[in-house]
């Protein structure tokens, strides 16, 4: 399937032997990953690093063209400082093992999110966070520089735009802008948000004395759908972003960024498939080029040779502006009643007053139905804990509605945007 899509690289979030075997002989460049929970062990034990390389690289290489080993995933976005300081030692252990086997063609790195920066705009002001700048990032850059590896970044213009849609132009985020933004510090002109994000990292690295470390975009993309209050998550924007991204990254001559014109940036689109069982907000389940059943969400040519006029027309969208109104979270239609009953027990068993109104004799006890009780419990929990990260999902049993489900004296809690 990946070959039929004419992809040049594939990234795994582990080192699954079944997938690595399937990729044998495909000539696809492969990136594999060491899980976060193995970093400490590998950092402390060279033998463990050697075993990992034997089991996950030597066993498949060179028939499977492993090119990158990523140590952890967005480690610096989690508040586990012990692992922060074990990250570079783990990278060095893996590199020593590769070097001992003359496998220096395989590069070692670690993907970071844009939250490693404390300042990102304008790009020339890009600066790493003070809590990691000297203690973690500087040693990491030293390692990447001496091993001629890459700085791997998960860069999502969607998140930057959707968090601030009034101040960031949507066309600027989608590579569709007909205007430029000038960085007053350098005079460099920017026509899209991704270039600004990438250059902010380039300037941040330069401030630590490493102006030449190359970039890899280890994740980028745009969601095809999301929750009602998540603006811009639709098929038209996803297709526009990813098609334009491919055009930019495959252009001849190479485009690069304003700070590094003409420099190739290897890029991975997230993701191949939708993840229909992933927890969290709606966008978490809708990043795929393909739906969870393998059918394409939209047309895309990963070679960049197809022009925009060759694609079929896309549906008109209506969610490119932030939602204003009130939402409730209710039980989804057609779900299993046994699963709903178990969800009620889970949601109402926290002792936090979420389901107090469902007690016998209380205002929302009747009608006594699993669907009614689940809908109240979901809406109450979501409204109470949304600010702490709760989403209207509940393992696929819930959905949002703009229609007030309240009945008589039973008023359903809601969230207003």
From TrEMBL:
Swiss-Prot/TrEMBL GO biological process terms: carbohydrate metabolic process
Transmembrane segments: none
Protein source organism: Momordica charantia (Bitter gourd)
Keywords: Disulfide bond, Glycosidase, Hydrolase, Signal
EC numbers on record: 3.2.1.39
Protein name from the UniProt record: glucan endo-1,3-beta-D-glucosidase
Family: Belongs to the glycosyl hydrolase 17 family.
SUPFAM superfamilies assigned: (Trans)glycosidases
Catalytic activity of the protein: Hydrolysis of (1->3)-beta-D-glucosidic linkages in (1->3)-beta-D-glucans
Keyword Aminoacyl-tRNA synthetase: no
Pfam families listed in its UniProt record: Glyco_hydro_17, X8
One example GO MF annotation: glucan endo-1,3-beta-D-glucosidase activity
Residue span, X8 domain: 327-412
Alphabetical list of InterPro entries matching this protein: GH, Glyco_hydro_17, Glyco_hydro_17_plant, X8
Cited PROSITE patterns: GLYCOSYL_HYDROL_F17 (PS00587)
